[in-house]
Amino acid sequence: MVARELNKCHNAPSPQAKLNSMVTLTLHNDLPTLDDKLEWAHELDRLCQRIQGCGTPHVLGIHGDWGSGKTSFMRQLQCRLGGEMPDDGSVADWKKFEHSEVQKQLQKKIITIWFDAWRYQNEPVPVVALLHEMRKQMALLPTVVGKIGKTVDITVRYALNGLADVAKVIGLEGIPSAEKIQRLGENWEREHNAQALTSDTIRKHLQEAIKCLLPKGESARVVVFIDDLDRCNPKTAIRLLEGLKIYLSIPKCVFVLGTNERMLVDAIREEISAPAGTSSEELKLRAAHYFEKICTDIYRLPLPAKTLELFSGWLPSKVHREALQSALGNKVCLPPNPRRLKALANQWERFARCTSFPRDTEERKILAVRVLVAAYVHQFHRDLWERWHFDPDFWAEFVAWCNGERSRNADGQPADPPKWATALKLTGRKEQDTWIPDFLNPGDIDIFWMGALIQEYSHQLVAKDFTSLLQGRQQNTSTAA
After folding, report:
1. CA-based angle 478:480:481, to the nearest 5?
2. Helix axes 318-328, 361-380, angle to 10 degrees
3. Sign of the four-CA dihedral 134, 139, 144, 147
4. Could you report how far apart the first and last alpha carbons of the chain are, in Å?
5. What share of the chain is helix, strand, coil (3-state, %, to 5)?
6. pLDDT tens digits, residue range 60-115?
7. CA gap 355, 376 in Å, rounded
8. CA distance 15 to 478
9. What's the CA gap between 162 and 170, in Å, rounded?
10. Chain centroid to CA 22: how far?
11. Which pTM does this prediction carry?
């Protein structure tokens, strides 16, 4: 209902409204991109060098909160290593970014594989799905296709089939116990007249197959990017990690894991065994220690330092960008998360199209703050938005909370926050008449980032002025050209 109302303008359209009606609404999608808007170039180059020069087997963890840009970072890393992007629309505008000569040279010695773990979370043995994906992608690589075309190199076909054979054997038992490995090996021996297929033998078989498929040279290696491991259910996540450790810890292999470390540790915590009575904090430490045994090399994505600049870059109107930059200045009042900023930019445009930006510079600043606050609450705090939309006077209570006027009771003692605010944290706290920043984790999703902005502009942000935004009605004000 609210979304429909935002597109209605009940009063006579102003010149700005007419202009809005002629401009196509720009909505930003959440696809990973090769466009480096977060200035990662230096870090990408450094990690490329590490991947090319590290001893193998090696597991590199790329850690960041959901929405921090992990998939884009990993895709850019893959591209820098000479990897090709899929032609299925899963990477935005990748054809605009041609490989450099250096990257073309890297293609001759590095094979990159992409594996979306989340898509296979219902597989009983996820490492089998990984092996099948490796076989599928390797079979399409020009270097491998060229080898297959040579009749003298029938071993390449054998190597590709070998990946499938090993996957089949592993799939029969999942992660087998010692007793089951012995029985599985005896069956293999009867069928293939070969030695028992223990986990060591499986690794050796995989090692020979991958070595055959790789380009020649000591520096040749296969780099497997595993994305969204943290989105899998706990059993799948831990089974895939175990599969990597047991079967794919082999030379010439580098695995790059994209994870939200906090979510993955929580998933592992649900599955590991511990004595009865073990505290939740100790379980968390055990889970983190378990993950460290598999992934000893960890890189944590930096938070975007220039959130206002990044956010403004997604706004189509120069007038809007300038007004917002003038209003915010150096204030820290935007979530340092690319996905959330992009979603906020989408809401900004919808709300801005239902109002008119005045010519006066100061009035324009106030309106920019008003639009930003409304867009932020609408996008990230549904409960607050519904209260506010139903009762516009709720704004007064909202401002009082942001200003710390609800933090003390009548006796001057600390008071509990309002029930509607118990799950939220402000970026500052008020002691007497001074605001003191709290040292919160900027990656937390329960931070109300607009608090500092509302504090500064609380006298100019009057409840009745939000009416057009709450109800989607066009204001009749003079507009800038």
Report:
1. 125
2. 90
3. positive
4. 32
5. 55, 10, 40
6. 999 999 999 999 999 999 999 999 999 888 898 888 888 999 999 998 899 999 99
7. 16
8. 8
9. 12
10. 34
11. 0.81
